[in-house]
Structures are given as C-alpha cells and as structure tokens.
Specification:
about 475 residues, mainly alpha, PX Domain, 3-stranded antiparallel sheet, about 60% helix, membrane, PX_dom_sf, phosphatidylinositol binding
C-alpha cells in the first residue's frame, strides 16, 4: 500500500486526487467500505448493483433485465445521453429455427424489440431474424468502438464445438432444439445487457441490428480460423509478453483495491459456478433415477398378490413419478435462474478485466512516448555539442521533439480520461451486480420453496393409501 506522500507524488495518481477524495465512490447506500480509508484491506471491498431480473416465462426465452437508470455524468467517455429516460426498451429472443441442411445448416433467432422514447427508433415494435454470427459481429463492432473509451462491453456466448456439431451434423430435431433453447436465453441476456448501457443503447449498429428486417452483411471476423481470429490470438500473445516485460506499477490506490476485489470475486464466482453445475447434474441424475424407480415399482405392483399392497405400490409409483417430474422442473430452474446467471457474471468480470487491461495499454503508450522524448532530447544535445551549433539533423530532431511532446500530452490526457471512465463503469457494474444477485437469490429461494411445497403435497396425497395397507 502506498504512503500518502508516495501517493501524491505519483505521476498520474495525483491528477485523479479529486475523485479519490470523494467520501464514498459507490453511493450513499454503501456502508461496507470507505475507499478513502487506508486501513481498509482489498478483501473488504464490496461492489453493488441496480439491475432486476424478470420472471422466466417459457423455456424458449431467457430472463429479462429491467432497464438501468444512471445519473448524469460529465465524463465524455462513459457519459449518458441527454435524452429522457425511455419508458420501455425490452428485447426478447422469443423463437428460433434451423435453416439449411448438413454443413450448411444454421440456426436463426427471432428478436422482438419493444421500445418507446429512445432517439432513433421510429416504431414501437420491431421484429428481426439474426444468426449467431450476427451477434458475434455486433460484439466485434462494440469492442472496436468502445473498449478504448473504458466501456465495459458484455461478452456474448462463446462458440461451442459440440453445439456446432449438433446443429450441422445431427439429424435429430430435439438435439438442435436443445442447443437453440439454451443459446436463445444466453443471447437474450447478452443483448438486454447491451441496451442497458446508456452509450450502446443509442449506437447506430445496435439500432440497425434490432430494427433492419433484411439480412445483415455476413461477418467474416467471427470465425476462429479467420484472419481476424489469428490476429486476435497474436494480439493477446503480445499483451501477455508486454505485461511480463513492461510491468505497470500501480500508483492509484483505488484501482489497486478494486482490481484485487475483482480478482477475488472472479475466483469466488467460478467456484460457485462449478458447484451449481454439479447441482444441476446431480438433480438431473436424481430425476432419471426417479423415473427408473417408478418403472420398477410399477412392475412390482403388477405382480403383487395382496390387493391393498398392490394398490399402495401403484400409488407409490404415481408419487415417485410425480416427484421425478418436480425435480426435473427444479433442474431447469437451477440451470436457467442460477447457474447461467452466475456464468453471465463471470463473463462480465472478464469484460471488466479487459477494460483494466486497456488502461494498462494506454499507460504503456504514454510511457513509451516519454522514453522516446528522452532519447530524442539526448540525441539533439549530443549533436549540438559535437557540431558546436545547430545543423539540419538538429533542426529535424527539434521538430520531432515538439511532435513527441504533443503526442505525449495527448496520451496523458487519454489515460486520465480513461481512468475516470473506468471508475464510472466500475460503479455501474457494482450497482447492477448487487441488485442482480439479490433478485437471483430471492427468486431462486422462492422456487425452492415452491418445489418443496409441491413435494409435500405429493406425499400427503399418498399417505392415506399407505395407511390403508392391510397386513
């Protein structure tokens, strides 16, 4: 942890001191930490949230997200548009269908958009069909536009080899339907999260994606083996090498604490996601075992000579089958309303880390400019001393020095503005996360209570039959 003297003397932390000295960066409702307190360890930092989750309606659609209302900001990178808050802006992926055969097969998703009060949208409702690659292409455009400005861009679902195989080579419609149902929920969460952001809500590419009924130009950058994909892998490799050879010594205590907390949150959510996946798998196995038990009890009831015992076994068969159906529904709830939401936040944290990495790259460019300026000044000094006066090379270096100084000032300004934008984005993420997690846990616990109530009713119905067994 930096001392106060070291903190104030840092080359860039001092420029954001006014922001750091705010009494509470996350709002009045945060009573768990004051970031201005040096004694607070990073592990005590807690993030907040302001997004609500609507009720899951049917298996073909996903959990909707209520629109987020953010106060005005003066930051030109993450500022909110001045138009009034929309009365409604909802996107649903409500249907999908498989088109083509064999290796040319693909799934298209039906997007229904209901919007009111947003500049650029002339109608109240829109309906479009989009391929999975269209979503990935939209994400690439958002990254290109907004990542360098410090905006946290939601990450769409990843490409899956198993899903690709089931779509293109499997002739069983049920297999393709399972892939479509799960991906439709994930894509709806992605696009809903995208339009939640005040910058991307009014973006022209997002508007075209939601409103143009014709097919969009085919994205060629979404294939893993495309030239763009290879460049992306090479760029990620360069970033790793750069971090190893040119380490950024963080001088901003706020960023130091937040990044530490984000790492802890990421690790905790990944462990929780692993547990939820095990829970879903165990419940699914229990559902299958219940079905098998019901079949075995049915055979036993058919061969039982005692009428009362046979009747009781038949009742037990019905009860076990009903219990198996109830656990099957709970398995879907575990997956849709718990496991998938946790996985979505893991992807959001990954997006948040990408913004932090963008800040590191901006700092490295600034430092490179400073080093380049120092080298050019040294060269000019040596030339002036060796020639005893100015010459053509010295004049050229003077021009280059002036250009480098101007570039360095621009990079410094960009780094400061980017840091401010990231602060706003972290507060935004923090606000959404708190409310999302609260709504998820409340809704999930309510579903568990309903499941246990249904189970109790099944066994209460069977109890009289068990008591009527005559020995």
């Amino acid at each position: 942890m930096l001392s106060e003297e070291e903190f104030q003397s840092n080359s860039y932390a001092g420029r954001t001191g006014a922001v750091l000295n705010q009494p509470n960066i996350f709002g009045d409702d945060c009573d768990e930490i004051n970031l201005a307190n040096d004694d607070t360890p990073p592990s005590k930092l807690r993030l907040h949230s302001n997004q609500s989750e609507t009720e899951h309606r049917e298996i073909n659609s996903i959990d909707d997200h209520d629109k987020y209302i953010e106060p005005q900001s003066v930051n030109r990178y993450a500022q909110i548009s001045p138009e009034p808050t929309p009365n409604s802006f909802k996107v649903q992926v409500c249907d999908f269908e498989k088109r083509g055969d064999g290796m040319n097969a693909f799934i298209v998703y039906k997007i229904q958009t209901t919007v009111d009060g947003v500049v650029g949208y002339t109608k109240h409702q829109y309906e479009t069909w989009r391929r999975f690659s269209d979503f990935l292409g939209l994400h690439e455009k958002m990254v290109e536009k907004y990542l360098a400005k410090g905006v946290v861009i939601p990450i769409p679902p990843e490409k899956s080899i198993s899903a690709l195989t089931k779509t293109k080579t499997n002739s069983d419609p049920a297999m393709s339907r399972d892939v479509g149902i799960q991906r439709a929920r994930q894509l709806e969460r992605y696009i809903s999260r995208l339009i939640q952001h005040p910058r991307m809500r009014n973006d022209c590419d997002v508007r075209d994606f939601l409103t143009i009924e014709s097919h969009l130009p085919r994205s060629v950058q979404t294939s893993t083996l495309s030239t763009s994909g290879v460049k992306k892998i090479f760029k990620n490799f360069q970033v790793v090498i750069s971090k190893m050879t040119f380490h950024m010594e963080e001088g901003d205590r706020w960023f130091e604490q937040v990044q530490s907390q984000v790492e802890e949150l990421d690790e905790a959510l990944r462990k929780l996601y692993s547990v939820t996946e095990s829970l879903v798998s165990s419940r699914r196995d229990m559902t299958v075992s219940g079905e098998q038990l019901g079949k075995a009890l049915s055979l036993l009831a058919a061969c039982e000579e005692s009428t009362s015992l046979s009747r009781a076994l038949s009742g037990l068969t019905d009860a076990v089958e009903n219990v198996s159906l109830i656990w099957g529904k709970q398995t879907d709830i575990d997956n849709i309303k718990f496991s998938e939401i946790i996985h979505e936040y893991i992807l959001l944290i990954t997006a948040l880390k990408e913004v932090f990495a963008e800040r590191v790259r901006a700092w490295q460019q600034w430092q490179d400019a400073q080093q380049s300026l120092a080298k050019k000044r040294d060269q000019k000094t040596k030339i002036d001393l060796s020639t005893g006066g100015r010459n053509e090379r010295s004049d050229q270096l003077k021009v280059e020095i002036e250009e480098t100084v101007q570039k360095m000032d621009q990079l410094e300004q960009h780094f400061g503005e980017l840091s401010k934008a990231i602060r706003e984005e972290v507060a935004r993420f923090d606000s959404d996360r708190k409310q999302d997690m609260k709504n998820m846990l409340v809704e999930y616990m309510e579903s568990m209570i309903n499941t246990q109530t249904e189970l109790l009713q099944v066994w209460e119905k069977f109890e009289p039959q068990a008591r009527n067994i005559q020995v």
